[in-house]
Amino acid sequence: MNIELRQLRYFVTVAEELHFGRAAARLHMTQPPLSQTIAVLEATLGASLFLRDRRQVALTEAGAALLPEARRLLEGAAGLGELVRRAAAGESGRLALSFVTPADYSLLPPLLRDYSAAYPTVELVLQEATTDVQVDDLLNDRIDAGLVIPPLSDKAQDRLDYIKVLAEPLVLCAPAGVLPDGGKPVDLSTLRHLPLIIFPRKSAPSLYDAILSCFHDAGLSPVIKQEAIQMQTIVSLVSAGMGLALVPQSVSNLMRPGVEYHALASPTPLVELGLAWRRDNASPVLRGFLELLRKT
């Protein structure tokens, strides 16, 4: 069955006017081709849409049933141009974004707030994941972009683009009461008796190496008590008194009972955070997200 939007538009006009002459005038056409178009539509549908006599035109039950659906289809067709324009401009669609935990306590909340304000009709799909998981998801087209801790593997660099977004020092996350009050920067050598809780190296090699370098610079060889892939878990283990941790500074926004954050006396390596995305991803939604990220 092949029904044209033009036929539906003619039908709706006649149904609203209930007069073929007035409907033809409204459509800027003569009456014979209008009557012929309606007749073809009726033949296509296999039912009469109008009751006609010399004095009046009325809708049949079939015509009355068709009228609201025809209006709905015409309204939908009228909105296609705006729908296509918004999609091409990145104003509608879906953005799948993953992020490492430190982003959740630094740039992610204001970034999402600004993006949602600029693109309110885009569906955001968010997922927390370690860098290695995100890279795999990017390469397999499961997400559009990821906030990761570099470096990326050589294989990933061949297919992914990356921009640096943030760099921050490490701070000490220690059980409450282990250090005296006063807020002074802490020398790690005073805490040689406490074991270390740390990310697995596979999940964040640069963060792992930066943490160990702080201990080596202090002349220490830390005893690794526990590894955990979530910052929330690491902080919870510290609050349980199982050891200490060095975490990116933004993680100090994660407050837990039994935990204190302290600056370190010696300068630490900076932990970098950036956005990675597939180089061949031409999504207008992703393009809009990148433009906003670069502005902010």
Describe this structure in words.
With 296 residues, this protein is an alpha/beta fold. It has 3 domains: 5-78, Winged helix-like DNA-binding domain superfamily/Winged helix DNA-binding domain (Arc Repressor Mutant, subunit A, Orthogonal Bundle), CATH 1.10.10.10; 90-166 and 273-295, Periplasmic binding protein-like II (D-Maltodextrin-Binding Protein, domain 2), CATH 3.40.190; 170-269, Periplasmic binding protein-like II (D-Maltodextrin-Binding Protein, domain 2, 3-Layer(aba) Sandwich). 42% of the residues lie in helices and 21% in strands. The chain contains 12 helices and 12 strands. The strands form 4 sheets. Strands 4-3-5-12-6 form a 5-stranded mixed sheet, with helices on both faces. Strand 1 (50-52) and strand 2 form a beta hairpin. It starts with a helix and ends with a helix. The model has no long low-confidence stretch (mean pLDDT 89).
Short description, anyone?
The protein has twelve helices and twelve strands.
What does the secondary structure layout of this molecule look like, with pairings?
Layout (H helix, E strand, L loop, with lengths): L4 H13 L2 H7 L4 H15 L4 E3 L4 E3 L1 H18 L1 H9 L4 E7 L1 H4 L3 H11 L3 E7 L2 H9 L5 E4 L5 H4 L2 E9 L1 E6 L20 E3 L6 H13 L6 E4 L3 H9 L5 E4 L10 E4 L8 E8 L5 H12 L1
Parallel strand pairs: 3-4, 3-5, 8-9
Antiparallel strand pairs: 1-2, 5-12, 6-12, 7-10, 7-11
